């Protein structure tokens, strides 16, 4: 009985694996909005004075991050973390230094998205 169950499990796994390889997935739509120093001053975050109907409509159909943290307390180092995936202290951007050479081997998120066929404005 145990051998039979193992064979059935193996067969089902192979069938599922072979079926999943033939499915062509459509890449998701990605809209990355970046705004500086506004905190969560948007209606979708509960700000009663903000009037942001278009962003609210996007938020209703997408993902809203309710519990997010920044790796740096100011905007430029935070952006360098988002775009590179590295801490500002590792990349050398923690003191707003724009003269730091960016490693050629490091691919930024916009570069990776562009290589995947997405339109990006920052590369």
Explain what you see:
With 123 residues, this protein is mainly alpha-helical. The N terminus is likely disordered. The relative contact order is 0.08. The protein is built from five helices and no strands. The chain has a domain of 86 residues.
Helix content: 40-55%
Secondary-structure-based class equals mainly alpha
Q: How many strand units?
A: 0
The mean pLDDT is: 78
Write the layout of secondary structure elements.
Layout: H1 2-21, H2 53-61, H3 75-84, H4 88-91, H5 109-115
Structure described in brief:
The protein has 123 residues and is an all-alpha fold.
Question: What structural keywords apply?
Answer:
41% helix, mainly alpha, 123 residues
